[in-house]
Amino acid sequence: MVSLEQELKGNAYPGRGIVIGRSANGNYAVTAYFIMGRSSNSRNRVFVTEGEGIRTEAYDPSKLEDPSLIIYAPVRVLGNDTIVTNGDQTDTIYDGLQAGKTFEQSLRTREFEPDGPNFTPRISGVMHVENGKYDYAMSILKSNNGDPDCCNRYTYTYDNPKAGEGRFIHTYMHDGNPLPSFYGEPKEVEIPDDMEQFTRLVWNSLNEDNKVSLFVRYINIADGTYRTQILNKNQ
Predict the structure, then answer these.
(1) Which domain holds residue 35?
(2) How do residues 132-175 score in pLDDT, each as one tens digit?
(3) pLDDT per residue over 168-222, tens digit each?
(4) CA-to-CA distance for 225 and 28, rounded, in angstroms?
(5) CATH number, domain at 113?
(6) What is the count of structural domains for the chain?
(7) What is the pLDDT of residue 214?
(8) Gap between the Cα atoms of 87 and 81, Å rounded
C-alpha cells in the first residue's frame, strides 16, 4: 500500500485520476475522480451535477477552444452501477451495460485518446452495489509505449474489496513532453471513513497550478444511498 497523499504530492502532473475502494469501517463504496490541466483550455473547466452523475462544463464559455476531449460526463449511474471515467467512454459503458454487455466488452469498441503524441490513456471504473454486496472493476486502454498502432487493454476486477483499501489509477506517470502513460497495476491506497477528510486530502495534495476539479462519492453499501462532494478551482 502506498500513501495517496505522497503519490499526488510527488507528481506535479498525474493528469486525470480515479480512486475506487471501500471505507475503513466497511460501510461505504468510495470513489474519487480528479482532473488537471496544463493548457488554458483544459483549465477552463468545472464539474457540475447532472442527474445522479456529473459532467464537465466550460467555466468561461467564451474561452472554450476544442471541446472534444474535455467536455464529457465523467460519472453516470445505471441502476446499481456507478460508472467513473476520464472521457466520453462513460456513455459507451453505460450503453453497453444497458444492452447486457460486460464492462470489458463495452470498452472493446474504444481505445486511447487521439491526442498524439501523448495518446492519453482512457481510464475507467465501475462500482456495483446491490443487496449489501459490493465489487468494482477498473480499466486502462493505452498505446503500446507511445506507438498508436497497438492498443493495450487491461481490466482489473476486485470482488468483495477489503475494508480500508482502494486502488488508484491515473493517466500519466509524470509531467513531460510527450506525457508518459500510466504503467503497471492500479496502486493500492488507504480509504478512510470520513468523506470530508478524504476529499481534503486528495484536493490539498494535487499540484496547485494544475488541479482543476475533484468529485468524491461515498455510497452506503447497505442501502445504496450516497453522499457527494465536488470541488472546483474555478469558482
Answers:
(1) 4-225
(2) 999 999 999 999 999 999 999 999 999 999 999 999 999 999 99
(3) 999 999 999 999 999 999 999 999 999 999 999 999 999 999 999 999 999 999 9
(4) 10
(5) 3.60.20.20
(6) 1
(7) 98
(8) 17
Tell me the H-state helices in the chain: 4-9, 40-43, 89-98, 103-107, 195-205
The answer to whether 217 and 47 have CB atoms below 8 angstroms apart is no
Q: Which residue has the cell 486525470?
A: 16
| Cα angle 200, 212, 10; round to 5 | 65
Check if the beta carbon of residue 163 is closer than 8 Å to that of residue 23. Answer: yes
At 162, list the grid cell: 477489503
SS3 152: strand
Neighbouring CB atoms inside 10 A of 28's CB total 25
Q: Cis before residue 121, ω within 30 degrees of 0?
A: no
User: Cell numbers at residue 192, please?
Assistant: 478512510
Q: What is the reported pLDDT for 30?
A: 99
Phi/psi at 97 (nearest 5 deg)? -65, -40
SS3 8: helix
